[in-house]
Amino acid sequence: MNEEMDLIIKNGTIITASESYKADIAVKNGKIAMISENVNVKGERVVDAAGKLVLPGAIDTHVHFELPVGETVSADNYESGTRAAACGGTTMIIDFATQEKGMGLVETVHDRFKHIEPKACVDYSFHIAITDLTDKILDEFKTSAEFGIPSFKLYMVYENMMVDDGAIADALERSKETGVLIAVHAENPYLISRRIKKLLSQGKTSAWYHYESRPEFVEVDAVRRMVYLAKSLKAPLYIVHLASREGLDEIIKARDEGLEIYAETCPHYLNFTNEVYKREDGRNFICSPAIKGEDSRKALWEGLRRGYISTVATDHCPFKSYEKDWGKDDFTKTPNGCMGVENMYPYMLSEANKGQISFNKVVEVCSENVAKIFGCSPQKGTIAVGSDADIVIYDPKKKFIISKENMHSEVDYTIWENCEMTGYPIMTFSRGRLVYEEGSFRGEPGWGRFVKCYR
Ligand SMILES: [Zn+2]
Q: What are the phi and psi torsion angles at 29 (to 5°)?
């Protein structure tokens, strides 16, 4: 090959889900063109990655950008959200397009395209959150899958979004025939609403009672029922943001039986415990499911190590301080959601650096498994010839302390304030284009493209 390459990354250690090895990478037209011990061609840009790790960019399969919630909208729009993603080594995001009642599935996504297309700084796709599961919508499963969106989320909680178990069963049944994947937010809404009523009537209004209103068993009960439904209907199932040990036990049992059941967890469940709700800024941690106790936190790590938890994603859905403050005197008035899109990959890699888990495992759960489960592998999720050049260069020696000043989202605080990272990404490339370098965003809105997914 005499042709000049667009980018050459030399002397780095490549990490995929299954391997770690030293090699050079050459990129042409946004794709990885060559991987070899010594790439001997010219490159427009040559990066020396000696002493650095070279990883596929993360894929955050759970973000809520520009999500209308009550009278407000989640704080990061498609531009600031994907900018923050790029700066945290995440080169693709999968957002949720929420169906307005009566709206079709593909129609729902088209509506979101208008918002995301001019703003996206990294590649993207959508899951559709179905709020109104009619026969017409069931008939549209196949059309949506053919269009490139084969995953739908159903909420068991939240007014205006929640569907009943009957609808979930119908969706599971139809998913099996059409190859789509049903994802469920699993919590029992009836337990929550009665507990909230009781707590408020007793004057228990601080952030801690957010946890008390949604303790472990509120999630476990729902996970158990969903796993049972999926098993009975022989359909695959994806549980989003699993937070509890006993919920994980249900997943373990199901996977040991050979069922196609996936669980996702989030960095905030891996790093924090319900103790955060006792803090002065406890309401900033209000998200659902609530962050659980230390026993659950430890179990989630074990679940990742052993392969029972398939993915890590952020559920990035932050609100500004003044909005979180609405719940100062009543935790139910604080909008639910935390930030993480810029923190997930650095945090997980830092934990690998400290020996909690392997680097390969981090690539597996933050990137490769996501691409495989949602249908964009091997275009995304790995470093291989022919794959998109979504690449992160990681300096395992770099120290980084997270603060709101060095983050790139629109939010005026971070729950990750003062968390110390051992190692940090120093460059992110999206299809071969530099989008982040040493603390600075280098990308541009409108660069990111829609990635069609086929399961
Ligand atoms: Zn979510």
A: 50, 40
